[in-house]
Amino acid sequence: ALFKRLPELVERDANLVKRGRFLTTEFAVVVGATPLLVRIETGHVIAVTRGPFLLRSWVFSITAAPETWLKLLKPVPDPGTHDLMALSKVGLACIEGNLQPFMANLQYVKDVVTAPRALM
């Protein structure tokens, strides 16, 4: 439910939208077994669509257990759960697919994914 509010949360931050202005992509945020397709157009989160999907593709995906996402989204996360890359390093998250757009826009993607911290 928190990720469904990404369009609204990202639009509140003009600097975040500006940082993502060169990115247009679709990626999946997978919470447990439930994929959420996040559509980005020139830095704006256009839609977050809940799966499951049949024959739907995305550029890259970020997968973690529901409790891991909750740890990441805490207002002050614990060490090792504060960042997507930290979660990946300790094996709590899996980032896969075409990683070029992810890495080229790393801070933007990390800030979009953690935007729901404002609601916690």
Essential attributes:
5 strands, 5-stranded mixed beta sheet, alpha+beta
Could you characterize the architecture of this molecule?
By secondary structure, the protein is an alpha+beta fold. It contains 6 helices and 5 strands. Strands 3-2-1-4-5 form a 5-stranded mixed beta sheet. A hairpin with a 2-residue loop joins β1 and β2. The protein is globular, with a radius of gyration of 13 Å. It starts with 5 loop residues before the first helix and ends in a 7-residue tail after the last helix. 22% of the residues are buried. The model has no long low-confidence stretch (mean pLDDT 95).
What does the secondary structure layout of this molecule look like, with pairings?
Layout: H1 6-11, H2 14-19, E1 25-31, E2 34-41, E3 44-50, E4 60-64, H3 66-72, H4 84-89, E5 93-97, H5 99-104, H6 106-113
Parallel strand pairs: 1-4
Antiparallel strand pairs: 1-2, 2-3, 4-5
**In angstroms, what is the radius of gyration?**
13 Å
Approximate strand percentage = 25-35%
In total, the number of strands is: 5
- Which parts are unreliable, with pLDDT below 50 for 5 consecutive residues or more? none
Strand neighbour order, sheet with most strands:
3-2-1-4-5
Terminal CA distance reads: 12 Å
How large is the count of helical segments?
Answer: 6
Secondary-structure element order, N to C: HHEEEEHHEHH
Q: Report helical residue fraction.
A: 25-40%
Q: Provide the structure class.
A: alpha+beta
